[in-house]
Amino acid sequence: MKLQPREQHCARVSGQGGRTIVLAHGFGCDQTVWKDVAPDLAAEYTVVTFDFAGAGGADPGLYDRRRHASLDGYADDVIALFEDMDLQGAEFVGHSVSAMIGAIAALKRPGIFSSLVMIGPSACYLNTSDGYHGGFEMREVEEFLDLLDRNFAGFAATFAPIATGPANGPEVAEEFARTLCLNDAEIASAFARVTFMSDTRKLLPALRLPVHVLACSEDPIAPVPAIEFVHEAIPHCSMETLEATGHCPHITHPAEVVAALRRALDERLGGQAANAAGG
Amino acid sequence: MGVLDPASLTTCGLVSVASDGVIQEANAAFLAWLGRSRSEVVGQMRLQDRFTPGGRLYFQTHLLPMLRLNGEIAASAINMLPDAPESVLLSARSDPEGGGAAFVLMPAVERLRREARLTERVAQSRQKESWLAQIETLADIGAWAVTLPDMKLHWSDAVFRLHGLPVGNEPDLETALGYYADPADRERAAARFAAVVDQGATVEVEARIVTADGRLRNVRSHARPVWHQGRIIRVDGLFQDITPQREAEAARDQAVTRLSGMAENLPGVLLTVEKPARGPARIAYVSSRCREFWGLPPEELSRDIALLDRPGPEGTPAGLSATITAALERGLPLADRFRITDPAGTERWLSLCGSVTGAGGGWVRADCIILDITAEVEAEAQLERQSALIRHVQKSESLGQLTGGMAHDFNNILAVILGNLELLRAGDGADDEVALIDAALAATERGAGLTRSLLAFARKAPLAPAICDLNQIVRDTRDWTGRTLPAHLAIETSLLEGLWPVEVDVDSTASALLNLLVNARDAMPDGGSLTIETANVRIDDDYVTERFDEVPSGRYVMLSVSDTGLGIAPEVLPHIFVPFYTTKPVGRGSGLGLSMVEGFMKQSGGTIRVYSEPGKGTTFKLYFPARPGSGAVPAPLPREAVRGGGRRVLLAEDESALRTLLVRTLEAAGYQVITAASGDMAADIFAEDPGCDLLLTDIVMPGKLQGPGLARALRRLRPELPVVFMSGYAAEAAVHGNGLEPDDIRLTKPVRRGDLIAALERALASRRQGGR
Question: Where are chain A's structural domains?
């Protein structure tokens, strides 16, 4: 029997609030990254989390190496999920690459989101010859992909049982592999390549919905010039820089992120969304 | 001796960091890698800054979330900046209280390198597995092995599938052999397997199996020994389903057999010609019956498409290759007829039908069928001749009716004029008046003669047939015509003694003869010879030179008149019996003479033939039916009575249809025939190959050498060469002075088969006598 998108993506819904927030995890993780954020938000909103194709507990049959060879495929999945769960008009919070997946989905299906919150977004991770500073050189990304291969295909596959120790038993080794979030080396590498080779810079000026960017003080993945580019390229865009450092503030500084999200949704985006709806 | 501090002695780097990632403490090994003092590191730098950019990316996107979410990281490879070991295995545990974490960094360059190699080998091995799986699936090939000495059978998935069994438990060896359909194959397979085990042989078995689900499949099994430490430890094998190949081969063989059978048995030749976009056409296939038409086996004929153009009857190319090539170039269908001369010298009509198709790459192909339609063409020609005859008869009938009716009325008018003129003359008229009346009477007599001729033509003349001797009629007519024929004409008669009697109207016969004599005279204004001849003939289908379709077979008496005059042009010949057709000047001829003769002959149940050589002369032959029961009938020669004995006849005859007929006749009689379409050609052939036994030649032919000239030329090389001449009109006079030898035999057309063979035998016999 064919699974529905909500089942394929292991979608989870919590909270009873009037507004619905969809939290989309970034590359290298699954929906568990929201575990310190979602409960707090659920007190006020309806919160939906899910796993992208190839991540966490997503249906292995969902991943299609051709369709998911670009961010478009992931954006199509978001649209399908929204249709299946009747989520049109919800707020979409995307971390890292999910910010751009959300942007593409919003362009493909205008009105699907009321607003878009981008945490640590980057429209292009590579430095380019036109002076754009994405933060990474090609060889660095290649090194990263090599490390990914080593740890998934090589080490994790061969030595995970040894590393966790025989005393822990095979189920622990399995758990270990699972908590790498992406349990298929092939998909992990593919998603990594799609993410770090993506360039959505030209799409951003076409966005018509209100967007709010949450930037970390010091983000090693999305450096300030990259974040600034996103902020400037999107027409209706506000930005807030968090105290938090790193690339995953929702993990490292969940409370601050929850507060920032509330502020953004209630004060900025809520008003603008109402205006947009009224206009 | 104090207690050793493991942290200070270990070769691993040990680091603890605060929640913001800043290093709180580091051991000696870590500080040594960095080459910095504790104070330069602790509280000053973050651990993640010591990773390479790619390592930082991995740490941020994977390791840090894992540490935060799971509380630990277990032995993850990561790259460090050059001052530290390039690759380390990183393990960590977070401090749930303060948010910090402790890290162990284990140098693992070698280990990771080995790991990389191992990973590569695993990848290669997976690649091979993938290849094998594809081969098994796509080619229906499976692998099997038997381990020794326990004789345990191992099958790959494909082998199970090929046996119609679920993948899982292999049968034992004996059960596996039991799948062979034929017990003899089981024994054979077992014996070969034993040869592998006992002698280290490499073997192959091809046989049929019955699968578990009851299908019959052709399979091929290979086996080879695997040696280890001087003994065979295993037999490795392949197992392949070759049913599709075998079925395809069987279908192909069947198709080939059917097609080749068809090609061999078809009463004709199948031909395929191919041609590239630029380049000559060539024969791609020709069925073996081509030997009949071209005398060459397919492989010889295929060498050159021009070989199809074995000369036609006139020595001209048959045009087959040009027609096919043109059709290939224009892509048009083929439907045409050709004349060729087959290796036996027989002329054949061939029908060529075919279609042209594109064969890819700019190639075009013509697939043709060539059938021998000689019989059909001959039948058509005969039908055409008969139709012409019928048309002629119908025309003559209507003209006859018209002419007859008119002649009757005209005769009555003439009778009135004549009667009155005679009454006038009986009166007392003056002399000059009598002279006028006599002139009028003479003219009226001529008019009456003309009407008689008209009536004769219209076959309405009252004929009074009587039994008579044609020779006597000739003698009488000659006597009383002697005066009308000029002196410079030499008249000869050759009258057969014992001529069969005929039943004819004597006056009309004399009139017909006179008509011919007058025509002969007119044809020789400058003098010449005139020959009258009689003979007994038998008309049947035995004539080799022509047909007598218009009269029944039987005995006839022939009366011929030959001149050495101008001859009749070929284009005129068909019209000479048409009423009112004349070539004579106005006033000289009525145009009714010959049509009257023809009408009379038909009325008498006979026929007429004319043979003419322009510039040489003409012969008319009248055939009267012999009176039934009179005289002895010469028996026709039995067909196989005479054997040519393989002797070679050089035949010179310009008329192709006649030549073909002669060749058939002579070959049927056992002669070998070499043909030439002219005297010149015959001389060339003889010069190259003087091995023939006899020359059979027409007297008048196109080209420089006529029959007699040809005979002379050949006799200069071979004085004793026997020669037989043939001529339609060859009167005695025509060959006088041509230097023919007295012994030479002359056949006068029409020539009977028996007469021809007899003449040849006689000539050959005389040569043998002369040779003594």
Answer: 5-124+200-278
ipTM of predicted assembly, 2 dp:
0.75
Q: Is B22 on the interface with A (CB under 8 A)?
A: no
**From the list B69, B79, B119, which residue is nearest A251 (CB)?**
B69
Query: What backbone torsions phi and psi does residue B549 show, to the nearest 5 degrees?
Result: -80, -25
Q: Give the integer Cα–Cα distance in Å for B174 and B190.
A: 9
User: B294 is in which domain, residue-wise?
Assistant: 266-372
Contact residues of A toward B, CB < 8 A: 26-29, 32-33, 35, 96, 136-137, 140-151, 153-155, 158-160, 162-164, 176, 179-181, 220-221, 245-248, 251-252
Mean pLDDT of successive 10-residue stretches along chain B, which has 772 residues: 79 89 90 89 89 86 81 84 79 86 87 77 83 81 90 90 89 90 91 91 92 91 90 91 90 90 85 88 88 87 84 70 87 86 83 87 89 89 82 72 72 76 76 84 78 64 75 80 70 84 83 82 83 85 70 86 84 76 57 76 86 84 81 47 71 81 81 87 85 83 78 84 73 46 66 78 70 38
Same domain? For B164 and B204 the reply is yes
For the record, the structure tokens of B225 come out as 């020994």
- pLDDT score, position B630: 54
Distance from CA of B73 to the nearest CA of A (A): 9
Residue pLDDT, tens place only, A104-118: 999 999 999 999 999
Residues B718 and B598 in one domain: no
CATH number, domain containing residue B721: 3.40.50.2300
Confirm whether B350 is domain-assigned: yes
Same domain flag for B614 and B529? yes
Tell which of A25, A155, A195 to mutate to test the B interface (max B CBs under 10 Å).
Answer: A155
Query: If you ran DSSP here, which 8-state letter would residue B277 be given?
Result: S
- What pLDDT score was predicted for residue B729? 54
Tell me which residue has tokens 């031909």: B271
Whether residue B611 sits in one domain with residue B515: yes
Phi-psi region of B187 (alpha: psi -120 to 50; beta: other; left: phi over 0): alpha
Closest residue of chain B to A137, computed from CA coordinates: B53
**What is the C-alpha separation between B679 and B685, in angstroms, rounded?**
10
- Whether B642 is covered by a domain: the verdict is no
Judgement on whether residues B481 and B609 belong to the same structural domain of the protein = yes
Calpha distance A263→A240 (Å, rounded) = 10
Fold exhibited by the domain A5-124+200-278: Rossmann fold (3.40.50)
CB contact under 8 A, B21 and A246: yes
Q: How far apart are CA B39 and CA B282, in angstroms?
A: 95
B426 lies in the same domain as B361: no
| Residues of A carrying an active site annotation | 96, 219, 247
Which residues of chain A are under the pLDDT cut of 50?
155-183, 271-279
User: Token digits for A220?
Assistant: 């090693």
